[in-house]
Amino acid sequence: MARAIWKGSIAFGLVNVPVKVYTATEDHDIRFHQVHAKDGGRIKYDRVCTVCGKSVQYADIDKAYESPEGDKVILTDEDFSKLPAAEKHEIPVLQFVPNDQIDPILFEKSYYLEPDSNTPKAYVLLATTLERIDRTALVHFTLRQKTRLSALRVRDGVLVLQTLLWPDEVRSVDFESLDGVAEPKAQEIKMAETLVETMSDDFDPEQYTDEYQIELQKVLDEAIASGTGKVVSQPEEAPVAMDAEVVDLVAALQRSLEASGRRTAESSGKAAAEPKAKAAPAKKSAKTAPKKTAAKPAKKTAKKAAARKGA
User: Fold this and answer.
1) Which pLDDT tens digit goes with each residue over 123-133?
2) Would you state the pLDDT for residue 81?
């Protein structure tokens, strides 16, 4: 695990649970730098004031708010410190709610909590209790001067804190295209349920991979191995022709069932086949180190010359 980003304690009634907080997720996307297309030089960004035209250090930057009417207000760090916030090093438990009452759309970011005590009995007690009662603890969590409503639950015996969006941060939706749509027929619902059954299985995230990132890494590896900075474009496959709009929903469901059966048969055949051997990574050419030239004993030569003169 990376280093802890926060230390404090969970306030569970009169019970105090010291914890350390770690970021639970990470982004595996390949990172790119912006460069000058002509010579490959990195593009740098400078914070420049539009009034004086000078570069501004981060320590000299404040935050400004502009109202819809055009009024601008500038706040300093001192102004933000006066705002109400939960105790910076405390995670107070507000209440316990049934797990299924929290809409997944509210979940924002996840953190692991590690016990920060020589005797983590209180940590284990809270984790065990949450698992037994099948409930989630709602807490306040303050990070970087921002207080969020958060959910505290258990995953594989470890306490996990997930920050939640506030209700007004979730946009309401009302699509006119759904107004007046007829209810599905009984036969349509039955066939749809049958299709769902043929495609149903236990969730195993390990069987899903990010194909885009895998192929992108292959392109980069090939470019590095070839010694060129440009990637040769690959011929694009012809797009698969799409069927015309199907009016009869029952016919569309029937074709989905047939296609699902074919995919199941194909996946079974692939599982039986032996995996292909991975291509050996390209060997990098070793650079020849320049030979070191032996230093001449300058001091000894100078002493000999002086001795000759004296003679």
Assistant:
1) 999 999 999 98
2) 78
Of 21-35, 84-98, 100-114, give the lowest mean pLDDT range: 84-98
pLDDT, tens digit (0-9, with 9 covering 90-100), for 145-183: 788 999 999 999 999 999 999 999 999 999 989 888 899
Question: SS3 string of the chain?
Answer: CCCCCEEEEEEECCEEEEEEEEECCCCCCCCCCCECCCCCCECCCCCECCCCCCECCHHHCCEEEECCCCCEEEECHHHHHCCCCCCCCEEEEEEEEEHHHCCHHHEEEEEEEEECCCCCHHHHHHHHHHHHHCEEEEEEEEECCEEEEEEEEEECCEEEEEEECCHHHCCCCCCHHHCCCCCCCHHHHHHHHHHHHHCCCCCCHHHCCCHHHHHHHHHHHHHHHHCCCCCCCCCCCCCCCCCCCCCCHHHHHHHHHHHHHHHHHHHHHHHHCCCCCCCCCCCCCCCCCCCCCCCCCHHHHHHHHHHHHHC
Query: Phi, psi (5° rounding) for residue 104?
Result: -55, -20
Tokens read off for 140? 């306040």
Listed residue (113, 187, 116) closest to 153, CA to CA: 113
pLDDT band at 134 (very low <50, low <70, confident <90, very high): confident
Cα separations (Å) of 300 from 131, 273, 303? 82, 76, 5
Q: What is the largest CA-CA distance in the chain?
A: 122
274 against 176, higher pLDDT? 176
